[in-house]
Specification:
single chain, 488 residues, Aldehyde Dehydrogenase, Chain A, domain 2, six-stranded mixed sheet, 15 helices
């Protein structure tokens, strides 16, 4: 059994201690110790990769799709049977409110196994008849094989969900995985090993190594020559380092990276929809979602009203016990991250921003005052070149800027090195289609945010990533396509 006070690696179906020391896992809501986590060294990472390779070469990679699908659906059921245990672990690691974790993190994390197992059964191949000089012709068809051992590097903001978002399709395609969860949120990835064993996933198919990035498990995994592909969600700088490591051996990467997402609110927008949607897109998960809106462009006739109403809503955000259904916002993930976000709050103030709400640290009370809480913050009056407008903050903050026409809004939204997501608010359907086509992002929401059909492509443009996840697009990465040509 995995001891939640001492988080170990999961290698070849067993929990393994040791490595190069350990590190502390702190509860961000209280600043108190959750657990001690073992840090992997090169030898342990090598053991995990070797176990994954052995499992790939035995039954798992050759198992019929229907049989793998049945096992992965059992994994989803296993997570749901232990829902409360996974929920407790996720909230302790992240500090996020129970209303969020119980509706998004755990159910979606479990569903990723079922969804991709079922989708794979309907994933088509292709065949072509070809004329030949002999006159008899030839038949060409494609087959798909597992890519191999996949290194999965996970973020801390949606730990279980974003890990299974990669592991689900990877395993469905017959690959084996070595997961390196964030050092901030190691518990649910380790706990999932128990479920894998309970439902009969073969040993070595799912492995977990804990650690940091440089000179630790992250570097050792991405540099390992027997890893056939690497998938990563996280900040762009880390993504660049992983790409360099993957260049040795010419190994493919799939990456969803940072963003500085813009929302555009037109004067004909339904104000209530736009306010409620923007509250979620700016402040959900304390602003720690790669898809969050950090820049809002609002058409000038409704600018003042919009700022006023969004400010009133933001001032009503409640803090407190993450397990209380009355709590509206959790803390940031760590003191280091809060210091970073506060530096942007200060930079905005120094640049002359008008601060409509927030800008500091709230007094939550009791044990929670030692946690890493921060106030939802709204600015206006900054220049588009100011640091808080240009750089990703990854906190609960937004700068709101007026615009006068559609072309100006599109130009400002696109004036960024990132290209992940946008939210467009308008009741004019023609305008919605036109603007969505012109904003250079991987996903455009119209009159909604974070609404996802998991069959559709997900990923970013420019510095926001490489490749696409979701549906058949995930299968393109997790399989190698081969052509078979038969002369008739």
């Amino acid at each position: 059994m995995q001891n939640l006070k001492e988080v170990k690696h999961f290698i070849n179906g067993e929990y393994v201690a040791g490595g190069q020391g350990s590190f502390e896992n702190i509860n961000p809501a209280t600043g108190k110790l959750n657990s001690t986590v073992h840090e992997a060294d090169r030898n342990l990472v090598d053991q995990a990769v070797s176990s994954a390779r052995a499992a790939l070469n035995s039954d798992w990679g050759k198992m019929p799709v229907a049989e793998r699908s049945k096992l992965l659906c059992a994994v989803a059921d296993g997570v749901n049977k232990r829902f409360d245990e996974f929920l407790q672990a996720e909230i302790a690691d992240t500090g996020k409110p129970v209303n969020l974790a119980s509706h998004i993190d755990i159910p979606r994390g479990a569903a990723n196994f079922t969804i991709f197992a079922e989708l794979l059964k309907a994933f088509p191949s292709e065949a072509f008849q070809q004329d030949t000089p002999t006159g008899y012709g030839a038949l060409n068809y494609s087959i798909r094989k597992p890519r191999g051992v996949i290194g999965v590097i996970c973020p801390w903001n949606l730990p279980l969900l974003l890990m299974t978002w990669k592991v689900g399709p990877a395993l469905a395609c017959g690959n084996t995985v070595v997961v390196k969860p964030s050092e901030e949120t190691p518990t649910t990835a380790a706990l999932l090993g128990e479920v894998m064993n309970e439902v009969g996933i073969p040993k070595g198919v799912y492995n977990v190594v804990h650690g940091l990035g440089p000179d630790s498990a992250g570097q050792f995994l991405t540099e390992h020559p027997d890893v056939d592909g690497i998938t990563f969600t996280g900040e762009t700088v880390t993504g660049e380092a992983i790409m360099k490591a993957a260049a040795h051996g010419v190994r493919p990467v799939s990456m969803e990276l940072g963003g500085k997402n813009a929302g555009v609110v037109f004067k004909d927008a339904d104000m209530n929809k736009a306010i409620e949607g923007s509250m979620r897109s700016v402040f959900a998960n304390c602003g720690q979602v790669c898809l969050n809106t950090e820049r809002l462009y609002v058409e000038r006739p409704i600018f003042e009203e919009f700022v006023s109403k969004l400010t009133d809503k933001a001032k009503g955000v409640t803090f407190g016990d993450p397990f209380s259904k009355e709590t509206g916002s959790g803390p940031l993930i760590s003191k280091v991250h809060r210091d970073k976000v506060l530096s942007y709050y200060q930079a905005a103030k120094d640049a002359g921003a008008e601060i409509h709400c927030g800008g500091g640290i709230p007094q939550v009370g009791g044990d929670y005052d030692a946690g890493w809480w921060i106030e939802p913050t709204i600015w206006t009056g900054l220049k588009e070149t100011d640091k808080a407008v240009r750089e990703e903050v990854f906190g609960p903050c937004v700068h709101i800027q007026p615009f006068d026409d559609e072309d100006e809004a599109i130009a400002m939204a696109n004036d960024t090195p990132y290209g992940l997501a946008t939210a467009i608010w308008t009741e004019n359907l023609t305008q919605a289609h036109r603007v969505a086509d012109q904003i250079d992002v991987g996903i455009s929401w119209v009159n909604c945010w974070f609404l996802r059909d998991l069959r559709t492509p997900f990923g970013g443009n420019k510095s926001s990533g490489i490749g696409r996840e979701g549906g058949q697009h995930a299968f393109e990465f997790y399989t190698e396509t081969r052509n078979v040509c038969v002369q008739l």
